Every structure is written in C-alpha cells, then in structure tokens.
Fold each of these.
Amino acid sequence: FTSTRDNIHDTVGIETEMAETGENDLDCGDLTVVVRFVIPKGRTEVTVTEALAQAFEQSKEAGLAPIWVQEQEVLNISPTKTVTFIHGDLDVFVMDPFSGPGFNHVTSSSKFKCTVVGPRCLLACLANNTPVPELPYPMYTAAMKGMIVTISGLEKAEKEKFKQLVEKMAGIYSNAFHDGVTHLVAATARSQKYEVAVGKEIPCMLPRWVEEVWKVSNTEMVTAVDPRFSSHRCPALLGVTVSVSQLNRADKELLKKSVETHGGVYSGVLEMDKTTVLVCTSPAGDKYSHAKKWNIPCVTSQWVFDCIEKGYCLQTDSYRVDRGKANSSTPTKQDQTM
C-alpha cells in the first residue's frame, strides 16, 4: 500500500519523505489527519465488524495512523470544518454500522463538515490507490464513486430513497440532467430525460439497479458498472403501451410477445390517456382515425422491432404510417376508448 499512502499524503500536501518516516501523527504545520475508527457501544476492538477491523489494519499499512475510539468519545468531539483529504485540519470517522448516537452526532448537524465513511468505502479507496471522494455526506461503500445519477419517472418519496442510496455509495445525485450525468435511473422510457440520455448514449437503468448494487456492495468490493448488473438496464419498451390495428392474428401474437418481453404493455384497445403508440399498416380505419384525433403516433411494426434491436425506445417520426399527412382535429374527452 505504499503507493496508496503516497497518493493520499500527496493529496493533502504532505511531503512523501514524511510519509516514509512511519510517524504515528500526521502533522505538517497546521495540517493534521485524524482517522478515527469508532467502536459501537457494546463492542470492542475485537468484536467490531470484520470489515471495520480489516479497514483498520489496511489503514495502518497505508500509513494513515488510524486510532480506535469508543462511540461515547465521539459524542464529545467537535469535528473540524472539512470535507475530506484536502488542505486544512482533517477529521475522518470510519463507522460500521451507519447508525447510533455517534453516527447521528457527526452527521445530523450542518456545522459538522467531517468525512464519515464505512469500512468498505475506505477499503475500496485503499485498494484502488485513490483518495476518499470529496463529498459532504456519509459514504458507506464506494460502489458508485465517480458516478452522477439523475432519476426520471419516480414519485418524490422514491426519488429521495434512491438519492440517499446513491450518496451512501459515494455517488452524486442530480435533480437536473446536465453534461456531467453518467447514468439515468428511469421508471419509464417515456420522458424527456430518457430521450436526452439515449441521445447522449448514457446508460438508462432500472431503479432496482441501485438497490441491487447497494445490497451487493455491503458485502463485496464491487462497482455499479460491474457486468453482473447489466441485466438491470431499462428494457427498450419500458412504460410503453402498444395497441394494434390491421394485423393478422400471427403478427399480433408475435408483436404481443415482443412488446411484453421488453417491458411494454400490449393492449387490444386504444385508449386516449393510456395508449402510447398504435401499430398499423396503413393510415386507415377507425382506430387510426381516433389515434390521429388523440395525437397518438401511428407507426409500423418495424418501430417495435427496431427499438428492441437498438436496446432503447426510438423516436417514432420516421416510422409513422401517415408521414406527410396533416394532423386531424384536436382530441375531445368524448369517446376515449376504441
């Protein structure tokens, strides 16, 4: 872990020569690095979690000079105003679990700007020879380190739940979609954020991706881009309701199976407020007329198969059976189902 040690010491501006002395206190002028491993009430250095004990030993090997402190001692500490391994006085608390009076003491007040990490977050940073992320919230694992995640299609309470999980995995949550976003968590393929993500070739993931990464990263050193999580990508037709017209029975059955296999809903009826697209062969018939009136795109079946082949929901414009024709009248609330 020599290179890890040097990396972290360089990050905080300590000369490499000092790092190699093996001194227990990491003082350099006004600079002090304090890495406190918190022993929960009722536990000892011997009975703390395996991950916490392992992180302590590897921190010693990396030259961080960690110390054990009882949870009760934490309640008497006023953490310094810092975020992470940067210039200035540094307080780092390594805790497992992320609960209890000590954890609440150093995380509940905005006055405390210390770094609070779980042992698996610290172990990942040591293993990868990288500093702890400069983020102002507790990080239990590093599974989403370097990722910026935004969410589409979830209710406020659900968004908050996933925001907290992303942050606990050293990721960054963003309400808005901006150039730095690396992943979209989507409940549907029918949103503006989804369209932007597809255009920028940004991965679109299901909400359960966040939950599964969180679950696995609590017991393993893993990142959210591990291939095992690729099954949690958004299906191409997630949240899309497809109705059909003018197709024979065999084609309808094939379309139904394809739509439902890839996250969509196949419906025998056309509904103004529910149907996403009408699949048909020509601009004719009652369903087509009502779809036009209700501003529902009327497309060929190739749209469905191309979405599946590409792996994401495509724009409908180039698949419309009525390209070049003028739109019909404004929809009304009457006769909303066909």
Note: The chain is about 30% helix and 15% strand.
Amino acid sequence: MSNWVRLCRCAGPLVQLVLCHCATLLPCAELWCSPRAEHCTQLLGSLWEEHEDVRFAIHCGVGRAGAIRLEQRARNGPYVRLDNQGQTPVGGVCAPDAAGRLERLTPIDAEAVAAVCRCSAIPVETSNDAGLYLCEFSLFTSLHLAKAPAMFVHVPPVGQPCPLPLLRDTVQRIVECVAQQLGNCGSALAPVTPTVKAHIKVGCGVFVTSPRHPGCVIMGRRLAAHSDGNPHGKGTYALPGGSVEFGETFEACAAREVLEECGLVITDVRRLATFDIIKPEDGYHCVVLIMAGSLADDQAEPVNCEPRKCGGWFWHPWHAPLPKPAFSSLQHCKDANISPFGASGGGGGG
C-alpha cells in the first residue's frame, strides 16, 4: 500500500494551491519495525518543521474499491496487524506519549467536502474507520503532532471504473475544497478534538448448516475488536457475521461475510430474527439480523480466512450449551429459542 503526504499552503487574498508543494513517500512497508516507526514519526515531524508555511496536510493511500473515502478520525491503537517484517508497533500504539488519548479527529469538515464532491465521477464519502493499519498510523501521527489540520484520503485501486485521470481530478478537487474551507490560511488553525457521535450499527450473524453435520452450526472465537475499534465481544464465541455495508441487502451481507470469514458459499439465505443489542457501558448499540443459510457444497468445511480476527471455526451442536463466553447476539438467540432447524421465537430487545 502506497502512502504519501501532500502538504499544501495557501497564499494571497484568493486561495492558491501549491498542489505538489511537498509530496513524500512514507516507508510504510517497514513502518512497524522499531525503530522505523519512530523514524516515520520523526519524518512527519521534520516535514512540518521544514515547511512552516504549510497550513494543512492531505495524506493519501490505496483503500477499498468503489469510492474515495475521507477519513475523519485516527486511533492510537490497537495496531495488531503485522508488517512485512512480521512486526507490530511497540505496545500496539502509535504514540505512547498520547496521554491516554484513544483517538483524534480531523478539524477539517470532511462531510462538507464530501457533499461538494459527491457529483464527481468517482463517489466520495466519509469514514470513521481508517483500518487500524499503516494509513491510520500515519494520520494519527500528524494529528498528534498538532501542527495544522490533516486528513487522510483513501483512494480506490487505479483501473476501471476508477482510471488515473479521474482519480487525479477528484483528489485535486478534494484538496481545493479543503483549502477553500480553511479560507486563505493566513494563520495556522488550532487543531480541535470534536467528539465522534455515538451511532447505531447494523450487522448480521449467520447460522450456517450442513447435512454432513446434522443439528450443528458453525461458531468461532472472536480475537479482534469491531472494525470501528469498539472492543465489545472480543474473546467471545460467535456466529460468522459482520456489518451491513451501504446498499447491501441482509441476505447479501450474510453470504458475503460467510465467504470472507469461512471460505464457504451458502444458499437458501433467510432471516430468522432481529435483536437490538444495547450495551451503554461498552458504547455499543447494534441492530443484529440473525440469518441462516445452508452450504452450497455439502462436503465443504470452514477455513479460518481471517486468523487475526478469529481463533478458528468449528461445528457446534445447537441443542448443546453454548461455549463460554458467548457473544451477546448468540446468547440472545439461545435465550429466545431461535433455531435454524425449525420453528422458534422471534426477536427481542437488548
């Protein structure tokens, strides 16, 4: 993944961009390896010191296909994914001196920038999850240094339907919008740390069944936090599943999650129940659709496709007691007598 930081300055009564005032390739392939992580922090710090007239920075890296994503926040950790040297940051954090700050937000109004650019040929949207990897590490570093506003722009891979000229023009438009938003940048803007609004997630859990394992469903132990960094459910046993993406049906989400997590194709995907899981003490609120599906190949077996997120998949008799501790939505299913093998109860509250 490439990752470069473009520092921009503005001059005169009208906003005039020096679009390539400074473009630096960060050593992301080796970022975690101590002392290289410290070197990356020092490199960003030296860039800010060297270009004192710079008023904001746009980080850029390759993200998922489909849209350009404007990252609104960066977390200090936990960074657990390995780099190409098999290393993680010391302590799993970006800045040990961050004084307990778990996250920092860009003072740039990314929603306003996205609103202006949504008519572009390439969709532009905002995001609160920069991936807890190399890109988010570098953004947190810039925001923690607090020299001037910074934002990360995740661009889709170059190619159809996002050819390079369209990507270039859209990113340039984004930079122009940021500059216009910040005015003529006559003086450095004081970084602010707004609070992320609590939001409701929508997810699904999937009962996967197979004639080869009668009366059993697939379960696994969660090793990672949620994609937004919330640790609720970490270390618990759960069904395959995940968050519903924009424009995705519940049935499509269930099929995609099972394929991504277990390497299995399911058919006859159907809805069984809906639960409202509310855990204020964890800052967690999720509407969970409980789905069911049968294996398209009766002989197929689950594969742990995401070993950093899951301790492994296994078949568990649904009539037997749940392995402990059980994920909240799985326990709700058991308590409400939800079953993929016949008539059961409906949904319920948190």
Note: The first helix runs from residue 36 to 50.
Amino acid sequence: MTFSDDYFISNVYYQHFYHMLLSFLQAVEAQIRSFGQTPSQLLIEPHPPRSSAMQVTPLMFTDQMQQDVIMVLKFPSNSPVTHVAANTQLGLAVPAIITVTASRLFAVNKWHNVTGLHGAMQEQPYQLPVEIDPLIANNTGMHRRQIIDLLDQSIQVNSQCFVITADNRFILVCGFWDKSFRVYSTETGKLTQVIFGHWDVVTCLARSESYIGGDCYILSGSRDATLLLWYWNGKNHSVGEYPNNEYAAPRAILTGHDCEISCAAICAELGLVISGSKEGPCLIHTMNGDLLKALESPENYLHPRLIQLSTEGHCIIYYEKGQFCVFSVNGKLLTKMETEDSVKAMLLSRDGQYLITGGDSGIVAVWQVWDLKQLMTYPGCDAGIRAMAMSHDQRVIITGMASGSIVLFYIDFNRWHHEYQTRY
C-alpha cells in the first residue's frame, strides 16, 4: 500500500504509515509496538468515579470511634468558655486546644492525637485526647493565664472578641476602652503589641486561613462602622509587615456600613471579606477594600450575628431569632430556614459541605450547607454552648460551655458521603 502526497500534507495517520515501503499490516504492527493495543473491554465492573475517596483511601470510611461524646473537661473557674481554638496539627511544637473564658482567663490544653484507627487504639493504653493546662489544674502561675487589661464596660464578651494565631503562641483580643486591639503571649500572658486604627471600640476580630510560616490576615470591625484589614507576620509575631514597628498600618479600610459591626469573616483564598452590622445589612468587599455587593436578606431577617464563609463560595449568615440564610458569593440567596435554638456558635467543615451549630439549648446540630437539611443532632448538654472549634483531622468537635467546661464530640462526615452510603 502506498500513500499519495495529499496524505503527507494532511498528516492524518501516525508516522509509521508514511513509510512508502511498508504494507498496511506492517504499519499496524509497528503502531502497536510503539503505542500499545487497546483491548475491546477494559473493566468487568463499573469504573470508580474520578478522584474517588473510596478507592484512594478506603480506611477513611471505617468507624473509628463509636461514642458520640468523647470527654468532658471542667475548668475550676466556672466562668463560661466563650472562645475555643483547635490548632492540633502534628507539625506544631505544641498542638493544643486553647480556651478563653468570659473572665478572660485562658488555658493552653495539650492535645493528644488519639483519634486514630479503632484497632490501633486497643493496642495501647487509653489516653484522653485533651490534657488540662497544668497551670490551671494546679492553680499555680495564674498570672501567666489571665488577661488583666480591662475591656470597655459596654462590651459583652463573646467568641468574636478573640483570635488565636495558627501556632498557638499568641492571642489577639478586642473590646478595649482605648479603641485598640491587643496581642498577648500564651506562654507568659504578657502584652506584646497594641494596635490602634479605629475611631471607636473594636467589637469583633476574624482571621484568615494561615499561610506557610504562620502569616495571615487579621480583620477588625468597630463601632465606627468600618473594618480594617491587617497583616499578621508569623516570623516577627506581630501585626505589620516590619518588625519593631510601633505604629502598624492596615492593608485596607472597608466602608459601607452605617452602624456597629457585629460579625465578619475573611477568606484569603477567595480574596473576599463578608461583614454584618448590628442593624444590617451584610456587605461583600474585596481584600483591597472595594465594595462588591450588599446581600439582600429576606423580610424580617434583620440583625446578623454570626458569619461563616467557605472556600466553595457559600456564605452562611445567622440572624437573631434562629434565622439562617445561605448566599452565594454573587449575592444570590440559595436557601433559608428558622430554628427554635438561639445559636451562639457555628462552624464549617473544611470542605465547606457541612455546617455545625450550637446554642442556648446545648444541642450540637449538623446541617447540609446547600439546602440546610438537618443531618443529625448530638445528645443535649446540661448548659448552653458559647463557642465551637474542630480538630485539624476533622474528627472531633470541641464546644465551649456556659458552665465553664468543654465537651468533645466525635464526628464522621463520611457517613454522609455518597460513596459510603452506596457501598454500605
């Protein structure tokens, strides 16, 4: 078989076909030797879905712990636990659960990674996942765990008054009478930096996801109806890009609200800031300070109190009177619902698919984000929930209680995974 010059020009076959002396059969054999032969049937079972978690890591779908409540840890102060942070990555020098009470007494509680496979746990002595801060347990060196500086008398201490850095080494606190927010060392309890920039009392703080080296963005909201975006330098352990800079400058000033900022969230991956004022509405800004959109809430959804923003572009807003809304980053209302609980804390799973809430009823509830369908509730606690956090491995929910304790709940998001439900 020979080929005309038209086939050479069009280049419609593999290069082995263009040798003038080869027969068609020889050309096919040469092609198979070079590129292989595709069989008539690849599989006898259906092909697994692309990026299938079931195929890649099947052990993630095994039941690792059966009980819902793992442990309860009571602090001697009895003051409500108003903030919980769970930086439990194994790479940290001290993986810990840091708690802050309404009396501004904080504790660095060591984290033991015991949420491994159930079989592996049986081969070693049982160990509680959290070890209480020895300074708190022994009532020694309490000055190293107390933030003594006074807040403005009108400030009601809540979870949004505090931010913990990703390395567990510093606490940022707002609400001071001098219109500042401050940085304290968790090791010594000493004040390390005072940051000014607002014209009125700072009412809330938020932190972006942390970068390599611990750098991140800090967002502060105030009664002056503005938000300031700051840069946390993980190397220098201070707000501001330069070390020993007494007067840190904000990266951006976000305006558009008419009254006190009540809640805010920041996502550096999306480059967005979403904030709510005491009387509404909620606004979307870029991290450069540009106002993009005002979120139009349904009728009678008036007073935003909590905000969560996922990397998938879902914004979940909790309003007073048990009202929830889910918006897209384009401002479209996706769904809404009303609950009887007065919610005081909520958080998202890392993949942004699940919402966990807790409030005065003492019940932790898990919801599907896109339609706010309730997936499960945990046994009720004997006190209201004031703060929530989740361990780095997404296996443990830690709740701060109004009774001055923390409760650890085991969670397995895989039980709602479509592959798990199909297979089991």
Note: Residues 24-35 form the longest helix (12 residues).
